[in-house]
Amino acid sequence: MVSVYVSYAWKDEEQHRLVDRLGAACQARGIDFVRDTSHVGYGGSIREFMDRLAAAGHVVLVLSDTYFRSEYCMYELRGIYEHQNFRKRVHPIVLSGTRLHKPKDRITWIAHWIKEKKELEEELEALEDPKHTLELRKSLEDYADFHRLMDQLTSLLADMNTLTEDVHRDTDFAALLDRIAPVDDDFRRRIIDEVHHTLAHNAHLSKALQGRLHDSLAASVSDLAEALCAPPPDQAISTLLFPATLACLKSLDAQSSDFADAWTTAKSVLAWLTLLAVDARSVGVEQRQALAAGRLVFEIAVSTPLGVEIVSSRHREMAPQLRVAKSNVLGAGAIEQPRYESGWSEDAPLENLLLEIWSCVFPEESRTQLSISDRRKLQATLRVRREQATFHHYIAVPADQAKPLALSAFYQRLLAILPDLSLIFFHGDDEASALLVSDEYYFMALIHQFLTIPDLLAKKR
After folding, report:
1. What is the pLDDT of residues 26-53, one digit of tens each?
2. How would you class 121 by CB atoms within 10 Å of its CB: exposed for 0-12, middle for 13-18, buried for 19 or more?
3. Cβ atoms 69, 112 nearer than 8 A
4. Residue 213 to residue 202: CA distance in whole angstroms
5. What is the mean predicted confidence (pLDDT) over 130-155?
6. What is the 3-state secondary structure (H, E, C) of 349-413?
7. What is the DSSP letter of 284?
8. Rounded CA gap, 53 and 75, in Å?
9. Would you state the pLDDT for residue 310?
10. pLDDT of residue 401
11. Is residue 455 within 8 Å of residue 249, measured between CB atoms?
12. Residue 409: its pLDDT value, please?
């Protein structure tokens, strides 16, 4: 896990709030966030913490007038500089009102440390007995260093392209965190590894994919998984995986275990490839935290139930479990709401929805009504499946749904009974879609057609 330290003026309350927000964004991105309040215990050494910060691979600098006048902050900044690779290791946030870019604006901080040094010198000289002042004289040396380095350090920081404080807040520090840990790099590598591992267990499909890749590239491919994950996912599925799977299954006996194994492998590869369609940066920190926890109410900018399954699976870092439902493609854990007649009270729809959830979680056990024991069993199972990331159960609701059940009070009652159930409102937004595909409906139609390949082949035989 990548770690990032933060250097900021501790006494500034506004900076504390900004750092709190940054910490939440780091947590949502899977970055270890290290700050003084959580890593320096009672009686712990502040100086030791600052020395660790100075040597860290990544340090966020929250720059302000207060920062450049702070002895602690300047001690950290000097230490970071002395550990080399300054530009690569620091990630500045310049707070509003901090005048850093004009030379004359930076002179005030040089003057500050000249004054601090002079005042401390005068007070030391005024002592009747100047002995036993070693630590005070070390501070004097520090002030001299801050004066000496201020011009060079502030010039370096002024030369770094930064974003405003408001932009960082509005984007959940996306640009800053991308510089520390580029979005999806680790998870993309995991997808490639999963595809590689999956294909390694089925020679039939691997051979068909190799042939398809050879035909399209007119060259042999050394890493099949890398080649599959390189193009956009809709292109990889339509031009590579789909025709290769079709050719592979056509060559096998539909009643054989080879056919079943090849089809299982193809569906697994499809699931992992769909995750490459997610633009992780499009989901804010609040949604990421909710998705990671597998509960709460939040919105996703997608147009289809398939989009909900793919995006929520991506942020839970698990492969989507896809199924065909008439003309739609849903997640296996997606709970479809029963139709209700208008005028019903909330009690009957709530009980019917609970029954629908029960039948999704325990399809082998039918119920006409849930007892208190059944409800407790249902909630416990949802919790275990969420914690172990074995299954993701959720209700997907179009954000513009004009039904009484879209009212928040109804869902609050539901979540009071089943707090480990996700409730996801989704809405189409072409300008800020959570998917990196040009046409989400085409993407769903493509996957729908893929998932019905065995049925298509059966009709032709």
Report:
1. 887 778 899 988 888 888 898 999 999 9
2. middle
3. yes
4. 17
5. 87
6. HHHHHHHHHHHHHCCCCCCCCCCHHHHHHHHHHHHHHHHCCCCCCEEEEECCCCCHHHCHHHHHH
7. -
8. 10
9. 94
10. 59
11. no
12. 77
What is the average pLDDT value for the chain, to the nearest integer? 86
Q: Is residue 247 scored above 80 in pLDDT?
A: yes
Task: Confirm if 240 and 447 have CB atoms less than 8 A apart.
Answer: no
- Identify the band that residue 404 occupies on the pLDDT scale cut at 50, 70 and 90: very low
Residue pair 279/433 in contact (Cβ under 8 Å)? The answer is yes
For residues 63 and 154, what is the distance between their CA atoms, to the nearest angstrom? 10
Residue 86 pLDDT = 92
Is-contact 66 75, C-beta < 8 A?
Answer: no
Structural contact between residues 121 and 130, judged by C-beta atoms closer than 8 angstroms: no
pTM of the model: 0.61
**How does DSSP classify residue 202?**
-
